[in-house]
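My main concern about presentation is that the manuscript never shows what a single data entry looks like. Each protein is reduced to its one-letter sequence and a matching series of backbone shape codes. For the editor and my fellow referees, an illustration may be useful. For illustration, here is how one protein appears when written out as sequence plus structure tokens:
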Amino acid sequence: MKLFKKLTALISAAAIAAAAIPAMPVTKADAANKTASQILYEMGLGWNLGNSLDSTGPGDNSEENWSNPKITKDLIEFVHSQGFSSIRIPVTWGYHMDSSHKISASYMKRVKEVVDYAYNEGMYVIINIHHDNEVKSDGNYFYPDNAHKDVSEAFVKSVWTQVSETFKNYDEHLVFETLNEPRLKGTGEEWWFPVDNPPSNVQEAVGVINTLNQDAVDVIRASGGNNKTRLIMCPGYDASLDGATVAGFRLPNDSSSMTGVSIHAYTPYDFAMNTKEWEGAVSVYNDSIKSQLDWFFSQVKSKVLDKGMVCYIGEFGATNKNNDSERCKWAEDYTSKAKALGIPVYLWDNNLYGVGEENFGMIQRNSLTVAYPSYLKALSKAYPVTAPAKIPGDVNGDKTVDLKDGLLLQQHLAGWKVAVNKTNSDVNGDGVIDLKDGILLKQYLAGWKVTLK
């Protein structure tokens, strides 16, 4: 008992010092040596944390506005354990800004906390500007036309100035995406336009999107730190393949050559999204659908990759039509074709279930279970599941074992509501996290010759 009290005192005293040490992300020495293509290949199969931080509306609890639960570290750990090596975290900013475009400190802190859940797992993480493509009276938005160009530029520059400063020391595992699906919202050309002969309003929008992408890249690069060479992905009009290949679209000038194209592809549309049979919707992965999928990837290769650009598919998926076996066929083909081209793909998951339009749920966030195991297995076939590396004693998941871990485990054992890496906290390997783990970790931190398992 005296020994336990002594070690507890050691940890408690160290807590004062630990509290004064700012939490800094790990920076890999070789980060600057990786090319955009290498990073994209490593990103592999990704998952979208949809309808959470991208929900619209003010307040620190806005992530729950669209009926999804508060994001937890356990959720991200579960996603990682299911074979997703990266995560896209869509973020809506405009509802959390004052009249001078200042993002609230509490909201930025929450975004950083969620990013850290995944980043500290060793996952690649993407953050962006998401549902801010709308005209609002407060000026905290972007809209890609000349009438709103000035306010859009001010907003985009302001967001990326603040985000860049917050995350500039993170290594290459953090990727920025300038905008999400920039388009002429509310018009007849919002989602569809003739790519070979776009109307004048779309041509105008493409020019504004080029400017906004360039603004974001310039601000990010100027912020210094690892942002000087961070991978930045930029969408074309509505983030479609057409939008990235239409005449007039161009990637930003970037001396670091670390920019690429963000594409969204729920394709073929009649299989993946359309639920209206009278408009051509199908639920069977037939030869026609397969041919359309082949054509899509051939176009990505010839019109994007062969032109010297890199890309990822930031959103994809097939809505549930009570056709699990057919979705599995589609998923296996889709991901294998993407993997063959070195393109990472990010499954859209809005945590919505049932049959019909926009039901893209996969990871059930309340129960931490997989809704469609066979579908996930098919998606993952091209990207073999690798379990996250265990670092015994790394309780807070920052890839080191130090006094902060000892303090955090002590707080967890005392019943505090703190997040711990459960795999790394079971330091004696008996399958439970209890006082024995706390004592063993304290002994290790005190320099005893003990082994953490």
